Amino acid sequence: MTIFTPIFCRASLGLGLFMLLAACGDASGPDGKKGPAVGSRAQTITFAAAPVLPLGGGATVSATASSGLPLIYGSHTPTVCRVEASSDTAARVTALTPGTCTVSARQDGNATWAAVRATLDVPVLVNPTQTITFGPAPALKQGDTATAIATASSGLPVRYTSLTPATCTVDADSGLVTALLAGTCTLAADQAGDAHYQPAAQATLSLTVAAAPPPQLPGKPAQLSARAGADGSATVEVTAAQIDAGGLPIVQYRLTSTPAGIAATSPTLPVTAPCPAGDCSGRTLHLQAVSAAGPGPVSDAVDMITSYKVHQIHDEPDYTHIDTEFRGQFTYNASTRTVSGLQGDLSEVMSGLDQPGQPWPMKMPLLALKHQLSSIAAPASAGTGLLVTSFLLEHTRTLSADPRDHGTDGWSPGTGDWKYWGYNGSDRSQPNPGNAYIRIFVNTADPTRALTQAQIDTLAYADCAADGMMGDDCMTGTTRAGYGTAGSMRGYPISQVITRK
Fold first, then answer.
1. 373 sits in which H/E element
2. At 20, which helix (H) or strand (E)?
3. I need a labelling partner for 188 at 20 to 30 A (CA). Which of 42, 179, 213, 412 fits?
């Protein structure tokens, strides 16, 4: 069995810059600019089409090198699939868990040909079939609004339609039903499938819409949710999953806030309102339903909670193949101005050569940063925002805390002289815990706003895991403006983009 092992770069900064780059597999020119890797004749690897790979089963993947030289196969997702070479041009792939199996093929070259690497993504078919199940039917009277819930066995989102549009309507994404007339309301739920699942058979649910009672005021909107509007729109969207219309159609929904400042009306849900001065933070939201009978009671307050994706890039001037990247997600509560659940994957450029032009992260080893252990106010020079840091391990011990290494608390960006925790310290007998972290900037007014240079200067990462080490030195990325020093290979942050999920 041949298992792919990344080509590791192990070199101390004490080797000198050029020798370090040569040890990493590529040296920049004398002007310090990035350039193509020094090598001999280029070759390429071409994969055949991805096979069908069922969970618990196997399939054959084949590839060829343009040089005609034999290939070495491996798995970049060992928890998802196992790869065993069956010949120089084919490998047997066995699916272990749900997900996407990434198969690598490598050709190390010879005196004529340069080394090359390529990958192929093979979705694991968890189950070719899926089913849809509706939850209990909500009670409805003419004019009421309630949410019907259907779930697919695959976990994929379903789409709703009304088969009786004269009696009821339904929001395609949320399942929010509006009863128009007394009678039978029939809903349908569909799931189109994806790379892992086939389309599901349509499921239906019949609801009885009762006749309208004597007209009365609408009830208090219940089961509210609020989130930020479209990226960069500086708006808030509020909806409710349950509203008793009081027997008359709802003609208007009113949105207000505490403290005051956000206000809007709409004939339908959700209600979208602009943020005063582009900032909705620090406020809770309320809804009120209005019918011909008048306005009903104001709802209980709800926080504005939104899920975001984040993509951060650090340039690595002394590593010509690719930059360090972090891709993750977090939840922001604008009402309390707090961030939770920052987590994602940090790429490790020191672990091996990259293949230019391939999709991120070019199948480099990734560190799963899952532990948000710090959230502090950004310095005044960066404007209003939060610096949020997530770690690989369930503690912050990352960089040297020894004062001789300019260490402080054991992890703060720019400290520790790039040495790992315990190095040269009184506790240096302890092994390197191999921690890593990412620090992001969250604008508390609108996380999706483009960062200023002062805000980019607050970004940072450190990678002291085994594959992210250069001898005794961790890979780091900081700016002199932000933390008084650049990263260990002159790495520094160049961008961060946050988008709404």
1. strand 371-377
2. helix 17-23
3. 213
